[in-house]
Automatic annotation (TrEMBL):
Its EC number is 2.8.1.7. It is an enzyme of class 2 (transferase). The lineage of its organism: Bacteria, Pseudomonadati, Pseudomonadota, Betaproteobacteria, Burkholderiales. It holds the Pfam family Aminotran_5. Keywords: Pyridoxal phosphate, Transferase. This is Cysteine desulfurase. It comes from the Bacteria. One of its GO terms (molecular function) is cysteine desulfurase activity. It comes from Ralstonia psammae.
């Protein structure tokens, strides 16, 4: 079924987008009406009925299924987490790495991914940062660095600091052919680009839900390929057990793990946010992730054309298939007070000032930004 992307209708769900020039979805997305309604519904239930917990727990599974379908996974391949960092740390500690093994990463990738692996240095794991010499990373970036002790490649799908969209599928194929794990940070891509974990050949994929997935901070998820049974959780709680004791007395003789990604779950869930995620996933599904991608790319085309006219470069790639919703304009940070004074939300980044689009942005937003740039440059 063809999905309809009605930008005006979507935008009306995001009042913040009309109150300011919001170009900072790579930082966080503003709350939209549908997500807020789901949160309110949850709070009303808690307020009025002290919480129908069994109903909430059933809904967790419904949302888990929806999230799984959204990224091409099975429901038993999804664990709820707190954020990207937690997912990446669970992933890094689940692999049976031995002293002398190495992990390949891209220099300058998100620190929350790097630290999850760097923390294993104390166990003798070697984390090797590869300098990116091309627009984006692909299998060719990693091939020359793989040796007999390489076990893992880990990188972002879309980078936060320049908006590169790495070629994960080629890296996935490379990892399969060398028997390596591929661990992906999808914080910036999920909800903005179609993500298909099977097509990309990912072993584990972690993300938070407060950017492209449109919910408040505090919820993330980890995809774990169901065929990777050898992966073991570093932490254990009742939630991760196959036979949780009904009398709540721990059974030292039965530590059998739950099958699937659920074995990595710990304790109670972020119930409000999972309710919010149910609403945001329905909304993005109705619109279509491929339509969101096409929309942010169109806005990117318009921005690039305008920046070219003004003689402003960008830090990341220009080629369409190598970018997504993040554009870092090469202008100095002293532009920030000017943007602030004009009610524009953008972020400072390593090489300039970052503009990032969401499904609610429109062409007028791009034109308004370009007009502000032009005015100050005159
Ligand atoms: C690529 C990437 N990874 C991770 C994070 C954040 O990590 P966490 O969800 O643990 O706060 C961000 C930005 O907030 C990001 O851009």
């Amino acid at each position: 079924m063809t999905k309809i992307f009605d930008n005006t209708a979507i935008r009306s769900q995001f009042p913040a987008a009309s109150r300011m020039l919001y170009l900072d979805s790579a930082h966080q997305t503003p709350l939209c009406a549908r997500v807020r309604a789901a949160l309110e519904h949850f709070f009303d239930e808690g307020y009025e009925t002290a919480g129908p917990k069994p109903v909430w727990l059933e809904r967790i599974e419904v949302v888990r299924g929806r999230l799984a379908r959204f990224i091409g996974a099975g429901a038993d391949e999804i664990a709820y987490t707190k954020n990207t960092s937690e997912g990446l740390n669970i992933a890094a500690n689940a692999i049976d790495l031995k002293a002398g093994d190495n992990v390949l990463m891209i220099e300058g990738d998100h620190p929350n991914n790097a630290y999850a692996w760097l923390n294993l240095k104390r166990k003798g794991i070697d984390v090797r940062f590869i300098k990116l010499e091309t627009d984006i990373a692909s299998a060719d970036t990693f091939t020359p660095h793989i040796d007999s002790r390489t076990r893992v490649i880990s990188l972002s799908h879309v980078t936060f600091h320049a908006g590169q969209r790495h070629d994960i599928a080629s890296i996935g194929a490379l990892c399969k052919s060398h028997g390596l794990y591929l661990v992906v940070d999808a914080m910036q891509s999920v909800g903005v680009l179609p993500v298909d974990v099977k097509a990309m050949g990912v072993s584990m994929l972690a993300a938070g839900c407060h950017k492209g997935l449109l919910v408040p901070q505090g919820l993330g998820f980890l995809y774990v390929d169901k065929d990777l049974d050898a992966l073991q959780p570093a932490y254990l709680a009742t939630a991760g057990l196959a036979h949780p004791p009904a009398d709540f007395i721990a059974r030292p003789d039965d530590l059998t793990l739950r099958s699937g990604a659920g074995r990595f779950e710990l304790g109670n869930f972020n119930l409000p946010d999972i309710h919010a995620l149910g609403a945001s996933l329905s909304m993005i599904d109705e619109v279509g992730a491929d339509n969101v991608e096409a929309h942010v790319l169109r806005l990117g085309d318009r921005l690039l054309a305008g920046l070219d006219e003004l003689g402003i470069g960008i830090a990341g790639p220009r080629e369409r298939k190598h970018r997504a919703h993040i554009y870092v304009m090469k202008i100095p940070r002293d532009w920030l007070p000017y943007f602030e004074a004009h009610n524009v939300r953008v972020s400072p980044e390593r090489d300039g000032i970052r503009v990032s689009f969401g499904l609610f942005n429109n062409e007028n937003d791009v034109d308004a930004l370009l007009e502000l740039l032009r005015t100050r440059m005159q």
